[in-house]
Write a structure and sequence with these properties.
5 strands; Rossmann fold; alpha/beta
């Protein structure tokens, strides 16, 4: 079971420049004590089983385990928490209708299409973070 710590965020994307940008955006928000970067699905799943993250930024298209498989594994591990997947934000350049529908069928509700700006990013993350904190109070 993952260690509880709701001031962590995890970025899962195979593009280093995207990871750096997302890390900067998250750091500027000041919400998170720790921001973890994983550049593949295998590494991400290891991190996700040892710690709990309040925000999970996830790319769909990665070598090896893709974003859809990461979400499936998270759903399996958190069967008792139907709301867990709501902390996932799909951040992807491949957000066509088919991918959005597939992600929605897995319970994902939040999407950001690459490229995006910091204001759009901040609004999305702040909304989810606020909802999560309210549930925990």
């Amino acid at each position: 079971m993952a260690e509880k710590d709701n001031d962590r965020a995890i970025i899962i994307d195979d593009e280093e420049s995207v990871c750096e940008t997302l890390e900067l955006f998250l750091s500027n928000m000041g919400f998170f004590e720790e921001i973890v970067i994983c550049q593949d699905g295998h590494e991400a799943l290891k991190k996700l089983t040892t710690h709990d993250y309040s925000i999970i930024l996830l790319d769909l298209s990665m070598p090896g385990i893709d974003g859809f498989e990461v979400v499936n594994k998270l759903k399996e591990e958190h069967k008792t928490d139907e709301n867990f997947v709501q902390r996932v934000i799909i951040v992807s350049g491949g957000l066509g209708i088919d991918n959005i529908e597939k992600a929605k069928s897995l319970g994902v509700k939040h999407f950001l299409a690459k490229p995006f700006d910091q204001k759009e990013f901040r609004g999305k993350v702040q909304k989810i973070y606020t909802i999560l904190k309210a549930r925990m109070s």
